[in-house]
Design goal:
146 residues; mainly beta; Immunoglobulin-like; 3-stranded antiparallel β-sheet; two-stranded antiparallel ribbon; 1 helix; 9 strands
């Protein structure tokens, strides 16, 4: 792959092109999380205060490890000195390190019906709690999909 860089110099602009080797590795999550219980059921009073805990859900993920990756990018930098009217081409390598962690779970309320309006979940702990008061709502049963 070729990478080009161009400045917006006046009266003329300068450009540099260099070849860079970029490796892309596709990382896939192998296993779906599995909840400890297939269904969770809880009865709560209508006057439960906002922010009150309703239930804590738990899941496990069979993915085993944090995968670490690196990308090495060879770059040519064009350094321009406008005062002395010269430029310097500088070659350098940039190493980007990142990791993908498929073992860590994140919980999110995704539905159904009005449930996301009334309930929210701690994304790390799985603790579901009321988001707003339930007293004025006439719903008798909430189905919360996590």
């Amino acid at each position: 792959m070729y990478i080009s860089a161009q400045d917006a110099g006046q009266p003329t602009s300068l450009e540099s092109t260099n070849r860079a080797h970029v490796t892309v590795e596709v990382v896939r999550n192998q296993f779906d999380p599995i909840f400890f219980e297939q269904y969770y059921a809880v009865t709560i009073p209508k006057n439960l205060p906002t922010g009150a805990s309703v239930i804590t859900v738990e899941a496990n993920d069979a993915d085993t490890a944090v995968r670490k990756y690196s990308v090495l990018l060879n770059v040519v930098q064009l350094i321009i000195d406008y005062i002395h009217c010269n430029y310097l081409i500088h070659k350098c390598d940039y190493l980007f390190l990142f990791q993908v962690d498929f073992k860590t779970l994140s919980y999110l309320v995704i539905g159904d019906d009005s449930a996301p309006e009334y309930f929210e979940i701690n994304s790390e702990t799985g603790q579901l709690h009321t988001k707003i008061s339930l007293e004025t709502d006439t719903t008798e049963l909430y189905r919360v999909v996590i």
